[in-house]
Design goal:
Elements: H1 3-10, H2 28-43, E1 47-51, E2 57-61, E3 72-77, E4 92-94, E5 102-105, E6 110-112, E7 128-130, H3 139-157, E8 166-171, H4 185-188, E9 192-198, E10 203-205, E11 210-219, H5 235-244, E12 261-269, E13 273-282, H6 285-305, E14 310-318, H7 322-325, H8 330-341, E15 347-348, H9 356-362, E16 369-371, E17 383-385, H10 386-405
Parallel strand pairs: 3-8, 3-9, 9-16, 10-15
Antiparallel strand pairs: 1-2, 2-8, 4-7, 5-6, 7-17, 10-16, 11-13, 11-14, 12-13
Helix pairs in contact: 1-3, 3-10, 8-10
Amino acid sequence: MNVLDRFLDYVKFDTQSDELTNMTPSTPGQYKFAEYLQQKLVEMNLSEISLDENGYLMATLPANTDKEIPTIGFIAHLDTSPDMSGRHVKPRIVENYDGGDITLNAEQGILLKPAEFPELLNYVGQDLVVTDGTTLLGADDKAGIAEIISAVEYLQQHPEIPHGKIRIAFNPDEEIGRGAHKFNVEQFGCQWAYTMDGGEVGELEFENFNAAVAKITFKGRNVHPGYAKHKMINSLRVANQFAIMLPRWETPEHTEGYEGFYHLVGMEGTVEKTEITYIIRDFDRDRFERRKKELEHLTRKINKEYPECASIEIKDQYYNMREMVEPVSHIVEIAEQAIKNAGLTPKVVPIRGGTDGAQLSFKGLPCPNIFAGGLNFHGRYEFIPVPSLQKAVQVIVEIAALTAAR
């Protein structure tokens, strides 16, 4: 089975994660998919295959040489985003894309347009896998899983390519930030690894946002509005006052590249009580800490005007993996050379988000992120060019060979 057939097979599984269940995996579909993959790995005669109760699947391709070579790993996640349904995915192949609008769903008038998604024009002449407009596709990260398994199969079929011990792992719940929480790094037993979870072909990422979540609670005082002067404290209005005190240009819709932001992701309340939630993001650790302090400062400022009205709770989520990867920069150099060997130009870009690799890096497993090839993740306009799937397989094989050569 080639990488495209595997991918089309895997997207049939509904593996949408759910942060509200407080279980691991957060949804039963992820475990069902892991069991299916486990059987496929058994059929491939891989060794050290394990699937634990939390849905973490691991396996080994043994070394084919006596040379002392570092054990490396490749990782992808089982779940798809909660942002849009991943049930009953109906992928379609657009052959030899001509550069025009792609009709995803004629009945509902859903079109994938280069006018709205200009990156489409980078793939004119290629076969594209698209959705039917009613679900996401699932290339994030079933493409990564298909690529890893296909690369392992290729290495099995080509014993003339020397390689060391290679570990693979597929984990649940990356999309809700828990993918690395129960990942057993010691059991995985690698000196370093790569997540196959990036975007466009050629991308290589080894730095990401530092991330935190802040919940600010405002306590109000409700009084009949006709007699409220100097008595009422409307917590909804105070929460809004807090929000507009933050820099208006330091939000996701106004930032790019290495620029950080404050992102208001939720507000719920009444006159009596309101809670707002922010996520805080920045690549620079010092600026990240200053952003958290700014929220604390504004909370104190609110309390000067409305004593004991506001309270804040800040929780760090993950940190910039660059801090852990730079001391072992050769693992990035190997990936860059592998991408070049596959006939591509490496695009070293920062991840404006998080990845399992960031958390794993701080658990002792340095873990850069490599493209899986998809675009427009988490929605109906997601697509993946077929040559990008194939190139990712080639990059994995090249990394295995380069590691052995070094």
